[in-house]
Design a protein that fits this description.
The structure is a homodimer. In chain A, a hairpin with a 2-residue loop joins β9 and β10. Chain A has 10 helices and 11 strands. Chain A is 41% helix and 17% strand.
């Protein structure tokens, strides 16, 4: 049976770090969240961020915009927040309604306040290994590896999923010339010819595809470290439950260590997002040179 | 014996494309190159660009600055060129002297004129699969694959080298959801544990590490397509010669296809750089939104 890589102690250490720093600085940074429409999952996520942030001394303002808000009206709100010196972080909660181009919204947020790390300038700075605001989920994966002493140097890390928010930034981070980094990184996806052959080569397997229990025991070699980024809501036994991209029950028997869902990567992601607000407050003047 | 993937016909097609478009537009775009010091390899490369560009109707201005130019003076020249409407592309030739921070110079060039694709904003746009100026060498690799009908979808592409100018952008491009792309991409480097095991898995092997004849026949599986990005100057038999990162003589026996050095990727890189000037002229207003 594998070691369970719980997110809670990792998140706790991050919250402590932020609270201590903000107490010392005697300041209360502010994150402003723009929510378009009323997606329940988004409301839950943002509610959680607000609660966690409050505990470490960060104020979260949540502003709801109607689902049919025009692109122009949304961009005008972003502009106002970009210019507001009392706002340190700006987050536009995704998914956005289909009439709004997410790429344009991402590029509209002041890079210095971009706590999601979605602005092209920050994505580029990440790819170039320069100081930036790193997407919270990618950070969370690295924080879990670091916390549990799982080294990446020279090891085969296979990432399942090539998304711009997780798979690709994580691949970049794992190629950095410092720990966690120096990994041999393979990125697989729906077009990969023999997926099981790829996942079985992994010393560390990161699943980030958004398909419930997709990774089965036969896709995992004995002793692999499995990091499950997926959070999929499914109906089961008449109830609505959250499961990962990994079939936990069977994979845990072969893995040497595995993150649970819920209570794994997601828990740490929230902490990293909150810390990004602190980073944005701290570095606002340094990022956008 | 393998098929030789010559760069010349690929480059020729690119030059024809640019010349035809510029003749039609009846315009002569301008590339301004800043050279710091007198590195002979840089002078050769820039001289070659000037010659090729002239033939397709692009004007290249080469400006030499002393090796001890101050960072501020260099940045002031860049600012002036950024603002000059008669200049469509700005290139600062590397390597720069050690007293000048390359990262600051890269971020100083107007992203719309950044024909090297080195500005963090353009690096980010590449990572996000948005229209941008793509580094010429990475483009060259894809152009060769396309020209010779070598498909990448679902195939294992192993990239040897994780540099910010070749390995990492190429990995991103090969993960795009179109051809050439959809590859399963592995990035290897000096910290990879069992390099030969990785390179032998490749359907397509791209060597970009800058080590003369590093890839030997035992590192390559029968039938692999080998793309050699390296250009290394070595002394041999009393003469100075250019060789790639691949030991061509032995690897060509096993490979199904291979690029020569010289006359392979480098030849196409020059063409892609020249085309980037055309792209910059064409898209100047679209890039920097």
């Amino acid at each position: 049976m594998s070691e369970q890589l719980k997110g809670r102690p990792v998140a706790k250490a991050i919250y402590n770090e932020v609270r201590t720093a903000l107490e010392k600085a005697a300041t209360t940074p502010c994150l402003h969240v723009l929510m378009v429409g009323d997606d329940p999952a988004s409301q839950y996520y943002v509610g959680n961020i607000s609660k966690r942030a409050a505990k470490v001394g960060i104020n979260v303002e949540v502003e709801s915009l109607p689902a049919d808000v025009s692109r122009q009206a949304l961009l005008q709100r972003i502009e106002a927040l970009n210019a507001d010196a009392a706002v340190h972080g700006v987050m536009v909660q995704k998914p956005l309604p289909s009439h709004i181009d997410t790429a344009i919204v991402d590029a509209a947020v002041n890079p210095a306040k971009d706590v999601d790390g979605a602005h092209p300038l920050n994505v580029g700075r990440l790819a170039l290994d320069r100081e930036t605001l790193v997407p919270a989920t990618a950070q969370a994966v690295l924080e879990i590896l670091r916390h549990y002493g799982i080294h990446t140097a020279g090891r085969n890390v296979t990432i399942l999923g090539r998304s711009a928010v997780i798979g690709r930034p994580l691949a970049n981070l794992l190629l950095y010339k410092n720990e966690p980094g120096n990994a041999t990184v393979t990125v697989c996806h729906s077009r990969t010819r023999d997926l099981a052959a790829e996942t079985r080569r992994a010393d560390i397997l990161v699943a980030a595809i958004g398909r419930p229990r997709f990774v089965s025991a036969d896709m995992v070699r004995e002793g692999t470290v499995v990091i499950d980024v997926g959070v999929n809501q499914i109906e089961e036994g008449g109830a609505s439950v959250y499961v990962g991209d990994v079939d936990y029950t069977t994979v845990t028997i072969k893995a040497s260590a595995i993150t649970p869902v819920p209570g794994g990567v997601g828990t740490v992601t929230t902490a990293c997002l909150v810390r990004n607000v602190y980073y944005a407050w701290q570095r606002m003047k340094k990022i956008d040179r």
